[in-house]
Amino acid sequence: MPDTPRVAIVTGAARGIGAATALRLAADGHAVAVVDLDEGACASTVDAITEAGGRALAVGADVSDEESVAVAVEAVATGLGAPTILVNNAGIIRDNLLFKMTTDDWDAVMGVHLRGAFLMSRAAQAHMTKEGFGRIVNLSSSSAQGNRGQANYSAAKAGLQGFTKTLAIELGRYGVTVNAVAPGFIQTDMTAATAERIGMPFEEFLKAAASATPVARVGQPDDIAHTISFLVSEGAGFVSGQVIYVAGGPLD
Ligand code: NAI
Q: How many other C-beta atoms can be found within 10 angstroms of the C-beta atom of residue 103?
C-alpha cells in the first residue's frame, strides 16, 4: 500500500541534492515545499514537479534567519498543509585552511548548516508533534570525519550528527523519527566549486574521486534522494537517530 501523502519541506531545493530530493518525494506522492534563498530560483524544481503531476510550492527563505524560517514554515502550512516531513539540506562551503579561515567563513557555515537545521526543525516539529507523525532528515557529510580545508564545514556536519541523535531521543514518542544522511562525493555545483578552488578541471576531479571510491564512480543527487525517500517512508518508523553514509563504500 502506498504511503499516506504528506507535506514535505526540502531546504536548498533549487538545485543539486535538494532538487533531486524534492522531485523524488513528489514522485512518492507528497506535496513538496521547495525552499531556497531566492524564490525565483525554485521555479525549475517546482515546474518539474507540477509537470509530472505533483504538488509543489516555491518558498524563498534564508534558513539561518529566525524570522525568515517562521514565515516560511507558516507559508507552507497555509499553502500546502501541516509539514510532517523536513529535509534539512541547504548548505554552503567556505573552505580554507585554518590559518586563513576568517571568522565570517566560520559563522556563515555554522549559520546555514547548524543554526538553519535547528531553526527549521524547531518550527516544523510543532506541526509534527501535533499530527503524531514526522520525519526529519539532516544532511551530514563524509567530511564530518575530517577533511583538509573544511574545519568549519566538518565541525558543522559532525555537529548535525549529534543534533540528529538528540532530536531522535526527544521526538520519538511523538511518532517523529530523525536521521542523518552523510553523502560522500556527489556531482553537484558544490563539488564543482571545490574543483575550481583547488584549480583542477571538474572532469579530472570527478575521475580522481571515482577512482578513490569502492563502487568506482562518484555519487549523483538521485543516490541521496533514494536514501532520503526510504528514511521518510512510513515503513522506516523504527529507524531513528541513525547516520547513513551514502558514499559508495564503507565509512562509519
Ligand atoms: P548545492 O550548492 O548544489 O546546493 C545547495 C543549495 O542550498 C543551493 O540551492 C543554495 O542556494 C541553498 N542554500 C544555501 N544557503 C541557504 C540558506 N541560508 N537558506 C536556504 N537555502 C540555502 O549543494 P549540494 O551539493 O546539492 O549539497 C546539498 C547538501 O548536501 C548540503 O548540505 C551539502 O553540505 C551536503 N553534502 C553535499 C555533498 C556533495 O558532494 N555535493 C557531500 C556531502 C554533503
A: 7
Which atom, in ligand 1's list, is nearest to the CA of 188?
A: 25
CA dist 169 and 32 (Å) reads 26
Could you tell me if the CB of 159 is within 6 A of ligand 1?
A: no
Distance from C-alpha of 135 to C-alpha of 21, rounded to nearest angstrom:
14
SS3 (DSSP) at 96:
strand
Q: How far apart are CA 24 and CA 9, in angstroms?
A: 12
| Domain formed by 7-184+221-241, architecture | 3-Layer(aba) Sandwich (3.40)
C-alpha cell at 86: 523536513
Name the CA dihedral angle for 171, 167, 131, 80, rounded to a multiple of 10 degrees. Answer: 180
Q: Whose CA is nearest to atom 41 of ligand 1?
A: 186
Give the CA count within 13 Å in the CB-facing half-sphere of 9: 34
Q: What is the pTM of this model?
A: 0.99
- Does residue 137's CB lie within 6 angstroms of at least one atom of ligand 1? no
Q: Rounded to an integer, what distance in angstroms lies between the CA atom of residue 238 and that of residue 135?
A: 11
Distance 42 CA to ligand 1 centre (A): 14
- What's the pLDDT tens digit per position in 126-182? 999 999 999 999 999 999 999 999 999 999 999 999 999 999 999 999 999 999 999
User: What torsion, rounded to 10 degrees, do the Cα atoms 223, 31, 16, 186 define?
Assistant: -20
Assess contact for 229 and 129: CB atoms under 8 A: no
What is the pLDDT at residue 2? 85
CATH 3.40.50.720 domain range(s) in the chain: 7-184+221-241
Tens digit of each residue's pLDDT (9 = 90 or more) over 23-67: 999 999 999 999 999 999 999 999 999 999 999 999 999 999 999
